[in-house]
Amino acid sequence: MKLITVLAPLIATGAALSIQTPLLAVDDKLAVPGNNTLYFCSDPSNYTLNVTRIDFDPRSPKKGETLHVETQGILRHPIVDGAKVQLTVKLQIGSALIPVYHQTIDVCEGEDDECPIKKGSITLTKDVELPGAIPNGKYAVNIDAKNGDDEESELLCLNTVLTFG
């Protein structure tokens, strides 16, 4: 299922580094349950994917290591054609955040995809090989997933601040 192959590595990106001095304002009430360094962007009760926990093993992996990510949750509504995930990464240089990476991924496109993805319990598990050549620095990462329905309802939105090096 493409949802696994799309969301798990993106979520894993947030685990690859440890949280340092926040580049983004975070509210502890928005901390994602589980062994991770993620925060919801806003009240998660409005998301289509009700995340019950996200676990990283190890919690703070290093460049060149394998990261195991397990996400558990409940889909409140089916995921339909047109669902997209946007990954945005910004590098802190002084007090500025400079965009260094942006990718939009179609959740329902690919060899293993079958949309709609039915509502109900869902577990996403993925092992991610982290590149050894990630440049040192502080990064703000945003993962924003929207459903393909007419309202483009919010599937999930996560933020983290991470440091390599």
Automatic annotation (TrEMBL):
Catalyzes the intermembrane transfer of phosphatidylglycerol and phosphatidylinositol. Belongs to the NPC2 family. Keywords: Lipid transport, Signal, Transport. Residues 38-162 form the MD-2-related lipid-recognition domain. Monomer. The keyword Signal applies. It comes from the Eukaryota. GO terms for biological process: sterol transport. The keyword Signal applies. SUPFAM superfamilies: E set domains. This is MD-2-related lipid-recognition domain-containing protein. Residues 1-18 form the signal peptide.
